[in-house]
Task: structure prediction
Amino acid sequence: MIHIPVTLFASGVLGILSVVLAFSVSLVRNRIKVLNGDGAGAPGTLPLLIAIRRHGNFVEYVPLALILLGAVEVSGASRFTCEIFAVLLIAARLMHAAGITHGGPRALRAGGAMLTWLVILGLGIEALALSI
Result:
């Protein structure tokens, strides 16, 4: 049996975060009484659009990052390397979710997005290096 504990841990944390983000979309939908779509710009629907994008962005990036993390871990990268990537990915996604939720400076949102890209880029490079 193949054991990839770092990916297992990161997947667990990020899986829970995904459900929290999805649930927040449902809560906002229920509160503003919009069952489908984003409310098409109707008054009071901005919180729904934000919740949808927060969850949507998460599901756009996290699956690829976890696939890369698992591939790198099973292919022989050091546990420390995998742990660094996992911690950075979890931090990036928490930063992005917090930054897109709260108004004001977009540093958390932008920082979370950039850190996510850097993690995926780093994992991609690590995967290529391990495959050669």
Remarks:
- The mean pLDDT is 94.
- The chain is about 80% helix and 0% strand.
- The domain at 5-131 is CATH 1.20.120.550 (Four Helix Bundle (Hemerythrin (Met), subunit A)).
- The chain has one domain: 5-131.
